[in-house]
Amino acid sequence: MTARGGFQLVRLGAAMHGSGHRRRARSRTIADLTRRTGYAVAMVLRPETASDTLAIRALVSAAFHDAPHATGTEADIVDTLRDDGALTISPVCTVADEVVGHVAFSPVVVGCAAEGWFGLGPVAVQPEYRGQGIGQRLIEAGLGSLRERGAGGCVVLGDPAYYRRFGFAADPAIVLAGVPLNTSSP
Ligand SMILES: CC(C)(COP(=O)(O)OP(=O)(O)OC[C@H]1O[C@@H](n2cnc3c(N)ncnc32)[C@H](O)[C@@H]1OP(=O)(O)O)[C@@H](O)C(=O)NCCC(=O)NCCS
């Protein structure tokens, strides 16, 4: 099934059911920070820069630390994509200059004909900043950039309950070897 804008969800693999977002760390809201510091604290979305590399690594490691579906390789994946020049779109979200969110988009080969397709992920938000729309803003910004580039489509390996809101839909025609397609929500 093709979704809005041609972007598609392939849910291949373990559900993220019961993952980190339910076991939320002590929440830190932008409004709290503003109140505590007396300064207007803003959430800033921008492309990563060279000086963000270590902060992104720490963020991704922390975000996936307790996630049951984590492989422990997520931070390495981001570094490898960057080293290979394949981190095509890599926005970060900062709050008070701290990197609290990141998402990676990199080129993927889908079938033999598709050109200009990208894979979304990993996406990571610092546990104490979850549930404030940071993940959503990062993903929407990345998808917007893909559309501007005229991308053919985007695939993601993840939970439909989360990714459906961005217009992704399962497509039985797109599978990843060794991973079952599961289109239902947990
Ligand atoms: C997934 C993640 C990036 C979401 O970041 P976030 O900033 O909290 O997301 P948002 O604030 O934009 O969205 C929150 C919403 O997503 C839902 N959500 C978050 N993770 C979810 C999941 N795994 N399954 C289903 N829904 C999920 C929340 O319940 C919330 O729902 P609501 O809007 O109805 O209240 C963050 O939880 C995270 O870093 N998790 C650990 C790493 C991970 O699992 N990454 C995704 C796999 S690559």
| Strand residue percentage | 15-25%
CATH hierarchy, class: Alpha Beta
Oligomer: single chain
Average pLDDT rating: 82
Whole-number total of structural domains: 1
**Distinct helical segment count:** 5
The residue fraction in helices comes out at 25-40%
Could you spell the SSE succession in H and E letters?
HEHHEEEHEH
Global outline: globular
- Heteromolecules bound: coenzyme A
How would a textbook summarize the main sheet?
Answer: 5 strands, mixed
Number of strands: 5
Q: Any overview of this molecule?
A:
26% of the residues lie in helices and 18% in strands. It contains 5 helices and 5 strands, in the order αβααβββαβα. It has helices at residues 30-37, 53-64, 74-83, 134-148, 160-163; strands at residues 43-47, 91-95, 98-108, 117-125, 153-156. Helix 4 (134-148) links the parallel strand 4 (117-125) and strand 5 (153-156). Helix 2 runs antiparallel to helix 3 (74-83). Residues 16, 19-21, 63-64, 67, 121-125, 130-136, 158-159, 161-162 line the site of coenzyme A.
